[in-house]
Amino acid sequence: xxSIINSISFKNFFNxxxxxxxxxxxxxxxVNIIVADNGAGxxxxxxxxxWLFYDQILDSDDKIKKGVKDIAVKIIxxxxxxxxxxxxxxxxxxxxxxxxGRWKYQIIKSFRATRIRENITSFDSWQIVxxxxxxxQTDHILPRYKPVFDAEEKNNVIKQLxxxxxxxxxxFQGEEVDSIIDFGKKSSIEDAVRTLTDIxxxxxxxxxxxxxxxxxxxxxxxxxxxxxxQNDRFKKANxxxxxxxxxxxxxxxxxxxxxxxxxxxxxxxxxLEENFSNAERRNEFDIKIKEQNRKVNEVGEEYSKFxxxxxSRFFDGNFSWISLGFENIEAEFQHKIQKFREVHYxxxxxKNISNNPNKQFHFLPxxxxxxxxxxxxxxxxxxxxxxxEAKEGSHAHNHFxxxxxxxxxxxxxxxxxxxxxxxxxxxxxxxxxxxxxxxxSIEDSILKTREKEIALNERLTKLKKELKFLKDQKKDILxxxxxxxxxxxxINRYKGSIKRMEQxxxxxxxxxxxxxxxxxxxxxxxxxxxxxxxxxxxxxYLLHFNLCSDLAEATVKAKERVFxxxxxxxxxxxxxxxxxxIKYNExxxxxxxxxxxxxxxIEFNYIDNxxxxxxxxxxxxxxxxxxxxxxxxxxxxTNKYNYPLLAxxxxxxxGSAFTEGFFEATGKVFPQSIILVNDLYDKDDEMKxxxxxxxxxxxxxxxxxxxxxxxxxxxxxELVTTKIKLK
Amino acid sequence: xDRNQIxxxxxxxxxxxxxxxxxxxxxxxxxxxxxxxxxxxxxVIINENDNNLSETQIYRKIKNLHNLA
Lengths: 727, 69
Description:
The complex is a heterodimer.
Chain A (H helix, E strand, L loop, with lengths): L2 E9 L13 E2 L3 E7 L5 H13 L1 E4 L4 E4 L4 H4 L2 H6 L5 E12 L2 E13 L10 E5 L3 E6 L6 E3 L2 H9 L7 H4 E3 L2 H5 L6 H11 L1 H117 L13 H27 L15 H10 L1 E2 L4 E2 L5 H11 L16 H55 L10 H45 L7 H44 L8 E6 L5 E6 L11 H18 L8 E4 L1 H5 L4 H11 L2 E6 L13 H8 L3 E9 L10 E5 L2
Parallel strand pairs in A: 3-17, 3-18, 11-16, 16-17
Antiparallel strand pairs in A: 1-2, 1-6, 4-5, 6-7, 7-8, 7-9, 9-10, 12-13, 14-15, 18-19
Helix pairs in contact in A: 7-15, 8-12, 8-13, 8-14, 10-11, 14-15, 14-17
Chain B lengths: L2 H9 L2 H6 L17 H14 L4 H11 L4
Helix pairs in contact in B: 1-3, 3-4
């Protein structure tokens, strides 16, 4: 909806003396013209809008825009200042009414000046108090205004009359048009296009989509990398799994072998179990039998040896069994030997006597009794010669001792025989000695020997019986089929099978552990593989990237397209406007050309019909070109431009040749234009406008025409601007 | 320039129309239901950019459209 200025009023504002009602200018849609000579308040009119939008006033003295408060005294109508006594105040202000859509607004900006001194032009003479901006609104149905109190809302009301970034295209004065479109600055047109075509939105979207494309690409690449890593891991996991399965196979085979070994050993063990127990028992018997045999042999040997010694006991002096029954033999021998010796000695004695009658009375021969007999007799305390006792200490006993100790002189005796057999008998005696000493004990010895023999025999017999018993027991143990096998062999085999079972069991346990671990590893690897199944990267990322990529490309193209379209449109409108602007000019116009430079900037060229570049045109012509571009910018806006044109004396910048065309063109572009001109003023004319002016105001697009004039020939303090409403 | 207009201008790209089988660009809007994913994505970008969301925030939103982390 267009903003249409309904009225502008002044209160003691420069040459506009009086209340708002006294200096009210009403406007309509379309072209509104205020014709005013120089000094008739034309630029002051413009200042009102400066105050409205910027709280500034253009100081005509130095052409510098200044703050209202700073220049307040200059703003106050001289007449009003003059008529305000010291101590009194005067209100100075502007009032602008405008409509947009449903609402109508009234904006009043003013200040109060209290005169404190005489000099009305001096800043020191006035106390200035700025009033709060007053904003009132109403809808078109109810005529009464209602005040707007919110400061932000007030600002918005003021702003929306002409938005700040659009004011340079709507609100300008004179040579300002040069700065709007400065063909020396290539960005001028671009800035204009950007402002009026929302190309900035596209630019923003271009940046966004470009960034999103990069981010999506980064995310996708990250996924691809992850996927590659995942694929690598998948491949590696499969390799690991294959390796594990191979190991599993290997270990399982080993396990099977050991299990087979175990089974075989167990089978053997079970088979041998009974045999082993029998064999063990047999072995036990064997051991016992062996032991028993040893005992039997030992005792048997002892018995044999004992029996062997029996014969020797006959002749062994320790036993003298041969002497059994010869208890009296000694006595008989003694008797007989004695007899022999007596006879011998008798004969010897007789021989000796015959030979030596002196020795006939020798009672005993030197060797008689012999020493052995003597010893016997001494020991037994008995004389065998006399056969009587000879107790120790007795005479006979002592005699024995003497005889035993006497010196032997056998050489003197003459033996009558070759041998008196003494040696023989002596030998007999000597040899028999041990025998007949034992005679008394022979029976006892025989008895004991017999007892021993019996004992040994019994013992042997017993051992043999036991041995037989053991053998019989051993025979009783049934050994099926292996009776012939050595029990130790069976035992060894049995024990061997148990050992093999044990060893196999250990290996089985170990291998079962290993296979279980490998199996678990395989399972874990399979789980990992399942989670790493290589697939395309998640579709979302690819789609996301593709979409972002497409959109980035499309947004750039859209922006360029929009820009190019806008430039083309701009060119089209610029030429239309230009043609409108110059149609009353005598010079044939060329063609405005907007070209895009390789850097993307817009180059504005003016070419003739033959396509040649035209340069060096007059200043007004140049400005008309610029203005046509300005208007083109406004026209090319896809949204209808909604703001009025407020132009102060643009025609003086363009030149009179373009005035008519200007009014026509602006009427077509701006929903409302308020143009302040002095080019149409003719003071001598009754209507105060020249012919061109009259022609112009006849146009349908021109809705209002005012002519400002000032009172002539008066002092400054009496100078006021009055208006004549022509249309 | 309104959001729909911007959306249509961008989606009217020939390549996009062919790839995403968009026949009538003028019926596209930046409000649901969306014609397809690309329209949805672009709509989110346009809308949220107008809502002054940050680039990161907008990106997160369009990622969520694909259920991406």
